[in-house]
Write a structure and sequence with these properties.
It contains 11 helices and 10 strands. By secondary structure, it is of the alpha/beta class. The chain has 2 domains: 156 residues, 3-Layer(aba) Sandwich (Rossmann fold), CATH 3.40.50.300; 75 residues, no CATH class. Helix 5 crosses helix 7. Pfam families: ABC_tran (PF00005). Belongs to the ABC transporter superfamily. Keywords: ATP-binding, Nucleotide-binding, Transport.
Amino acid sequence: MSTSRPSALLSATHIEKSFGGRRVLFDVSAAVGAGECLAVIGGSGSGKSTLTRIMLGLETRDSGEVTYAGRPVVPGRGGRIPGSSEGFRALRRESGLVFQNPFASLDPRWTVARSVAEPLVLTGRGPDREQTASAVCKALATAGLDPSEMLERRPAQLSGGQAQRVAIARAIVAEPRVILADEPMSAIDVTARVQILDALNAIRTARPDMGLIVVSHDLGVVQHLADRILVLHDGHVVESGPTDGVLGSPKAGYTRDLVAAASL
Protein backbone atom coordinates (compact mmCIF):
# COMPACT_ATOMS: atom_id res chain seq x y z
CA MET A 1 0.00 0.00 0.00
CA SER A 2 1.05 3.57 -0.62
CA THR A 3 2.97 5.33 2.13
CA SER A 4 2.45 8.92 0.94
CA ARG A 5 -0.76 10.74 0.05
CA PRO A 6 -0.97 11.34 -3.72
CA SER A 7 -2.81 14.28 -5.23
CA ALA A 8 -6.44 13.56 -6.09
CA LEU A 9 -7.13 11.86 -9.41
CA LEU A 10 -10.88 11.73 -8.81
CA SER A 11 -12.59 13.81 -6.15
CA ALA A 12 -16.08 14.62 -4.95
CA THR A 13 -16.75 17.60 -2.68
CA HIS A 14 -19.85 18.61 -0.71
CA ILE A 15 -22.05 16.02 -2.43
CA GLU A 16 -25.77 16.07 -1.62
CA LYS A 17 -28.25 13.56 -3.02
CA SER A 18 -31.92 12.73 -2.49
CA PHE A 19 -34.21 10.04 -3.88
CA GLY A 20 -37.93 10.78 -3.86
CA GLY A 21 -37.54 13.53 -1.29
CA ARG A 22 -35.40 11.39 1.04
CA ARG A 23 -31.87 12.67 1.56
CA VAL A 24 -29.28 9.90 1.23
CA LEU A 25 -26.03 11.91 1.17
CA PHE A 26 -25.27 14.92 3.35
CA ASP A 27 -22.31 17.15 2.40
CA VAL A 28 -20.04 14.20 1.60
CA SER A 29 -16.52 14.62 0.24
CA ALA A 30 -14.16 11.87 -0.94
CA ALA A 31 -11.11 11.50 -3.16
CA VAL A 32 -8.78 8.87 -4.57
CA GLY A 33 -5.29 9.53 -5.88
CA ALA A 34 -3.28 7.87 -8.63
CA GLY A 35 -1.86 4.61 -7.30
CA GLU A 36 -4.15 4.68 -4.28
CA CYS A 37 -6.96 2.44 -3.06
CA LEU A 38 -9.86 4.09 -1.24
CA ALA A 39 -12.33 1.83 0.55
CA VAL A 40 -15.82 3.16 1.23
CA ILE A 41 -17.45 1.20 4.04
CA GLY A 42 -20.69 1.31 5.97
CA GLY A 43 -23.85 -0.63 6.56
CA SER A 44 -26.71 -1.21 4.16
CA GLY A 45 -28.34 2.10 3.25
CA SER A 46 -25.33 4.15 4.32
CA GLY A 47 -25.02 5.73 0.87
CA LYS A 48 -21.69 4.19 -0.10
CA SER A 49 -22.79 2.84 -3.50
CA THR A 50 -24.64 6.06 -4.31
CA LEU A 51 -21.55 8.13 -3.50
CA THR A 52 -19.21 6.05 -5.61
CA ARG A 53 -21.65 5.97 -8.53
CA ILE A 54 -21.81 9.76 -8.39
CA MET A 55 -18.01 9.90 -8.39
CA LEU A 56 -17.88 7.76 -11.54
CA GLY A 57 -20.57 9.79 -13.29
CA LEU A 58 -23.08 6.93 -13.16
CA GLU A 59 -25.54 8.81 -10.95
CA THR A 60 -26.54 12.47 -10.91
CA ARG A 61 -26.07 14.65 -7.83
CA ASP A 62 -28.26 17.36 -6.36
CA SER A 63 -25.32 19.58 -5.46
CA GLY A 64 -21.57 19.45 -5.00
CA GLU A 65 -18.69 19.02 -7.42
CA VAL A 66 -16.85 16.08 -8.97
CA THR A 67 -13.49 16.54 -10.69
CA TYR A 68 -11.37 14.09 -12.66
CA ALA A 69 -7.72 14.90 -13.36
CA GLY A 70 -8.51 18.49 -12.44
CA ARG A 71 -11.47 18.79 -14.83
CA PRO A 72 -15.11 19.22 -13.77
CA VAL A 73 -17.26 16.13 -14.26
CA VAL A 74 -20.62 17.43 -15.47
CA PRO A 75 -23.02 14.93 -17.05
CA GLY A 76 -25.41 15.85 -19.83
CA ARG A 77 -29.15 15.89 -19.31
CA GLY A 78 -30.31 12.76 -17.51
CA GLY A 79 -26.70 11.73 -16.85
CA ARG A 80 -26.02 11.16 -20.54
CA ILE A 81 -22.89 11.89 -22.57
CA PRO A 82 -24.45 14.43 -25.01
CA GLY A 83 -24.04 17.88 -23.51
CA SER A 84 -21.58 16.65 -20.88
CA SER A 85 -18.23 18.18 -19.95
CA GLU A 86 -14.89 16.96 -21.30
CA GLY A 87 -14.05 15.76 -17.78
CA PHE A 88 -17.18 13.59 -17.77
CA ARG A 89 -16.37 12.11 -21.18
CA ALA A 90 -12.75 11.48 -20.21
CA LEU A 91 -13.85 9.74 -17.02
CA ARG A 92 -16.21 7.49 -18.97
CA ARG A 93 -13.38 6.56 -21.36
CA GLU A 94 -10.80 6.03 -18.65
CA SER A 95 -12.70 4.21 -15.91
CA GLY A 96 -13.57 0.57 -15.31
CA LEU A 97 -16.34 -1.05 -13.27
CA VAL A 98 -16.60 -4.30 -11.32
CA PHE A 99 -20.07 -5.08 -9.99
CA GLN A 100 -21.30 -7.25 -7.14
CA ASN A 101 -22.78 -10.05 -9.25
CA PRO A 102 -20.47 -11.00 -12.13
CA PHE A 103 -23.08 -13.17 -13.83
CA ALA A 104 -25.47 -10.22 -14.07
CA SER A 105 -22.78 -8.15 -15.77
CA LEU A 106 -21.67 -10.79 -18.31
CA ASP A 107 -23.77 -11.56 -21.39
CA PRO A 108 -24.58 -15.29 -21.14
CA ARG A 109 -24.34 -15.63 -24.95
CA TRP A 110 -20.83 -14.21 -25.23
CA THR A 111 -17.52 -15.98 -24.85
CA VAL A 112 -15.04 -14.72 -22.29
CA ALA A 113 -12.91 -13.38 -25.14
CA ARG A 114 -15.75 -11.23 -26.46
CA SER A 115 -16.83 -10.01 -23.02
CA VAL A 116 -13.33 -8.93 -22.02
CA ALA A 117 -12.75 -7.24 -25.39
CA GLU A 118 -15.97 -5.22 -25.19
CA PRO A 119 -14.45 -2.04 -23.65
CA LEU A 120 -11.83 -1.93 -26.41
CA VAL A 121 -14.54 -2.16 -29.04
CA LEU A 122 -16.74 0.48 -27.39
CA THR A 123 -13.88 2.97 -27.07
CA GLY A 124 -12.55 2.27 -30.56
CA ARG A 125 -9.22 1.13 -29.15
CA GLY A 126 -9.34 -2.40 -30.52
CA PRO A 127 -9.47 -2.14 -34.32
CA ASP A 128 -6.58 -4.57 -34.80
CA ARG A 129 -7.66 -8.13 -34.05
CA GLU A 130 -4.21 -9.30 -32.94
CA GLN A 131 -3.74 -6.32 -30.62
CA THR A 132 -7.18 -6.88 -29.15
CA ALA A 133 -6.48 -10.58 -28.57
CA SER A 134 -3.15 -9.74 -26.94
CA ALA A 135 -4.77 -7.18 -24.63
CA VAL A 136 -7.51 -9.63 -23.65
CA CYS A 137 -4.98 -12.36 -22.80
CA LYS A 138 -2.87 -9.92 -20.80
CA ALA A 139 -5.90 -8.75 -18.80
CA LEU A 140 -7.01 -12.31 -18.05
CA ALA A 141 -3.51 -13.28 -16.91
CA THR A 142 -3.28 -10.22 -14.66
CA ALA A 143 -6.60 -11.23 -13.09
CA GLY A 144 -5.16 -14.68 -12.35
CA LEU A 145 -6.78 -16.67 -15.16
CA ASP A 146 -5.21 -18.86 -17.85
CA PRO A 147 -6.29 -17.38 -21.20
CA SER A 148 -5.90 -20.71 -22.99
CA GLU A 149 -8.53 -22.23 -20.69
CA MET A 150 -10.89 -19.27 -20.52
CA LEU A 151 -11.18 -17.54 -23.90
CA GLU A 152 -13.91 -19.73 -25.42
CA ARG A 153 -15.92 -20.35 -22.26
CA ARG A 154 -19.28 -18.74 -21.58
CA PRO A 155 -20.54 -17.54 -18.17
CA ALA A 156 -22.45 -20.77 -17.49
CA GLN A 157 -19.13 -22.62 -17.64
CA LEU A 158 -17.49 -20.43 -14.99
CA SER A 159 -17.43 -20.61 -11.21
CA GLY A 160 -18.36 -17.48 -9.27
CA GLY A 161 -14.72 -16.65 -8.63
CA GLN A 162 -13.77 -17.19 -12.26
CA ALA A 163 -16.67 -15.03 -13.46
CA GLN A 164 -15.68 -12.18 -11.15
CA ARG A 165 -12.08 -12.36 -12.34
CA VAL A 166 -13.34 -12.23 -15.93
CA ALA A 167 -15.27 -9.11 -14.93
CA ILE A 168 -12.08 -7.67 -13.43
CA ALA A 169 -10.17 -8.46 -16.63
CA ARG A 170 -12.84 -6.64 -18.63
CA ALA A 171 -12.56 -3.65 -16.29
CA ILE A 172 -8.79 -3.33 -16.80
CA VAL A 173 -8.40 -4.33 -20.47
CA ALA A 174 -8.56 -0.74 -21.74
CA GLU A 175 -6.00 0.32 -19.10
CA PRO A 176 -8.28 2.69 -17.17
CA ARG A 177 -6.91 5.31 -14.80
CA VAL A 178 -9.55 4.56 -12.16
CA ILE A 179 -11.64 1.51 -11.26
CA LEU A 180 -14.72 1.17 -9.07
CA ALA A 181 -15.28 -2.26 -7.52
CA ASP A 182 -18.70 -2.28 -5.83
CA GLU A 183 -18.92 -5.14 -3.31
CA PRO A 184 -16.84 -7.38 -5.62
CA MET A 185 -16.67 -10.29 -3.16
CA SER A 186 -20.08 -10.39 -1.52
CA ALA A 187 -21.69 -12.74 -4.07
CA ILE A 188 -18.97 -15.41 -4.05
CA ASP A 189 -17.70 -18.03 -1.61
CA VAL A 190 -14.85 -17.60 0.85
CA THR A 191 -12.26 -19.45 -1.25
CA ALA A 192 -13.04 -17.33 -4.28
CA ARG A 193 -12.78 -14.15 -2.20
CA VAL A 194 -9.10 -14.85 -1.65
CA GLN A 195 -8.65 -15.20 -5.41
CA ILE A 196 -10.42 -11.87 -6.03
CA LEU A 197 -8.29 -10.14 -3.39
CA ASP A 198 -5.17 -11.56 -5.04
CA ALA A 199 -6.41 -10.36 -8.43
CA LEU A 200 -7.07 -6.83 -7.19
CA ASN A 201 -3.65 -6.65 -5.54
CA ALA A 202 -2.03 -7.97 -8.74
CA ILE A 203 -3.77 -5.23 -10.73
CA ARG A 204 -2.46 -2.58 -8.35
CA THR A 205 1.05 -3.94 -8.83
CA ALA A 206 0.69 -4.06 -12.62
CA ARG A 207 -0.89 -0.59 -12.79
CA PRO A 208 0.83 1.47 -10.07
CA ASP A 209 -0.66 4.73 -11.37
CA MET A 210 -4.28 3.52 -11.26
CA GLY A 211 -6.78 4.71 -8.67
CA LEU A 212 -9.02 2.03 -7.14
CA ILE A 213 -12.26 2.63 -5.23
CA VAL A 214 -13.65 -0.38 -3.38
CA VAL A 215 -17.10 -0.49 -1.79
CA SER A 216 -17.16 -3.23 0.82
CA HIS A 217 -18.58 -4.36 4.13
CA ASP A 218 -15.76 -6.91 4.56
CA LEU A 219 -13.21 -5.16 6.76
CA GLY A 220 -10.81 -8.08 6.45
CA VAL A 221 -10.59 -7.45 2.72
CA VAL A 222 -10.35 -3.70 3.23
CA GLN A 223 -7.51 -4.17 5.72
CA HIS A 224 -5.39 -5.97 3.13
CA LEU A 225 -6.23 -3.81 0.12
CA ALA A 226 -6.99 -0.19 0.97
CA ASP A 227 -4.65 2.70 1.67
CA ARG A 228 -7.42 4.87 3.07
CA ILE A 229 -10.94 4.35 4.37
CA LEU A 230 -14.06 6.50 4.29
CA VAL A 231 -16.79 5.44 6.74
CA LEU A 232 -20.39 6.37 5.90
CA HIS A 233 -23.41 6.09 8.20
CA ASP A 234 -26.89 7.24 7.16
CA GLY A 235 -25.40 9.41 4.42
CA HIS A 236 -22.85 11.17 6.64
CA VAL A 237 -19.07 10.75 6.76
CA VAL A 238 -18.34 9.68 10.33
CA GLU A 239 -14.63 8.95 9.90
CA SER A 240 -11.90 8.88 7.27
CA GLY A 241 -8.16 8.43 7.14
CA PRO A 242 -5.35 5.91 6.60
CA THR A 243 -6.46 2.30 6.90
CA ASP A 244 -4.20 1.44 9.83
CA GLY A 245 -5.50 4.40 11.83
CA VAL A 246 -9.19 3.94 11.08
CA LEU A 247 -9.20 0.21 11.78
CA GLY A 248 -6.51 0.20 14.48
CA SER A 249 -7.68 3.22 16.48
CA PRO A 250 -11.18 4.15 15.34
CA LYS A 251 -12.45 7.44 16.72
CA ALA A 252 -16.16 7.26 15.87
CA GLY A 253 -18.42 4.95 17.84
CA TYR A 254 -19.97 3.63 14.64
CA THR A 255 -16.54 2.69 13.28
CA ARG A 256 -15.65 0.98 16.55
CA ASP A 257 -18.84 -1.06 16.27
CA LEU A 258 -17.95 -2.11 12.70
CA VAL A 259 -14.44 -3.13 13.75
CA ALA A 260 -15.72 -5.05 16.78
CA ALA A 261 -18.28 -6.90 14.66
CA ALA A 262 -15.53 -7.87 12.20
CA SER A 263 -13.30 -9.17 15.03
CA LEU A 264 -10.22 -7.43 13.62
